[in-house]
Amino acid sequence: MGEARIWHGGDLDEARRLCPHAPEPWIDLSTGINPIAYPMPALPASSFERLPSPADHRDLEAAAAEAYGATDPAQVVAAPGTQILISLLPSLWPRSRVAVLGPTYAEHARAWRGAGHDVDELTAFEAAREAGIVVLVNPNNPDGRTLERPALIEEADRLRRRGGWLVVDEAFADFDPGETLVPVLPENAIVLRSFGKTYGLAGIRLGFAVASAGMTERLRMTMGPWAVSGPAIDIGRQALRDRAWRQAAGRARAEDAARLDRLLAPLADGAPRGTSLYRLMESRRAPELFVHLAHRGIWLRRFQHDPRLLRFGLPGNEAAWQRLEQALDAFLAM
Question: For residue range 63-86, what is the model confidence (pLDDT) as tens digits?
Answer without folding.
Answer: 999 999 999 999 999 999 999 999
